[in-house]
Design a protein that fits this description.
198 residues; alpha/beta; Beta Polymerase, domain 2; five-stranded mixed β-sheet; two-stranded parallel sheet; 3 helices; globular
């Protein structure tokens, strides 16, 4: 008797064929890796193929693998990771698409396939500097428009270089060099045997 996961794996291999670079099954989930150059065709198959019908994009995020596995990672640095849902078949799938260039990470936009990708792609652009080719309105969504850098990259400085505050005299937001001294936070440890028990 085949399990639901085995049925999904067989359907993926049948429908996508050579589009799949890697398929892993772990912790009750399937993750596939697709080349950026083939990703739009593969995503359309995932959405439209009768055996798959991943009609909903649940999430899309950027990932910086530069320090993954304590620096043991030996692959491309940036990936767009998409989580899809098939309501018809009650299946979930993770699709990983690596950007071919670490210096200028570009992957195709999924907005024409799943319009819900719009804000997710803007977030990945803002926080990781990933470009989504074909996105009609790729601009920052969480950081200020004048913000320099991408704060979720592993090489982004932890403290930053400037801080932003509102100046009441100038009646505007101003930027100034960081004035906070670096410090180590030591957590408070409670060692009472019956703490929290009444």
């Amino acid at each position: 008797m085949t399990t639901k996961l085995e049925t999904l794996e067989a359907a993926l291999r049948n429908a996508l064929g050579d589009h799949i670079q890697e398929l892993t099954v772990a912790l009750g989930e399937i993750t596939i890796v697709v080349k950026a150059s083939n990703s739009l065709a593969a995503m359309r198959v995932l959405r439209d193929h009768a055996d798959l019908r991943f009609e909903q994009l649940i999430d899309l995020c950027g990932v910086d693998y530069s320090t993954y596995g304590d620096g043991a990672w030996d692959g491309l640095r940036f990936a767009a990771v998409t989580h899809l849902l098939s309501i018809r078949h009650n299946w979930r799938l993770r699709v990983r698409v690596f950007a071919a260039d670490d210096e200028l990470p570009v992957v195709p936009s999924l907005c024409d396939i799943w319009p819900a990708a719009n804000w997710f792609e803007r977030e990945a652009f803002d926080l990781y500097g990933m470009l989504f080719e074909g996105h009609r309105d790729l601009r920052r969504i969480l950081t200020d428009y004048g913000f320099i850098g991408h704060p979720f990259r592993k090489d982004f400085p932890v403290s930053g270089y400037v801080e932003m505050r509102y100046d009441a005299d100038q009646k505007r937001v101003i930027y100034q060099p960081v004035t906070i001294e670096p410090r180590e936070n030591v957590p408070r440890i409670i060692r009472e045997e019956n703490y929290g028990i009444k």
